[in-house]
Amino acid sequence: MPAKNGRMQVREFIFYVEDLATAALPPDVPKPQRKMMWTILQLFWDNPRAHFELQPQPSRQLVELGLHFEGPAADNERWAQRLAGNASELQAALGPAWELEEWTASWRRLHRTFPYETLTGELGREVAAEFTKAITLLWPYALVGPTPEKPAAANHRPYHERFRRHARV
Question: DSSP characters for 37-67?
Answer without folding.
Answer: ETTEEEEESS-TTEEEEEEEETTTTEEEEEE
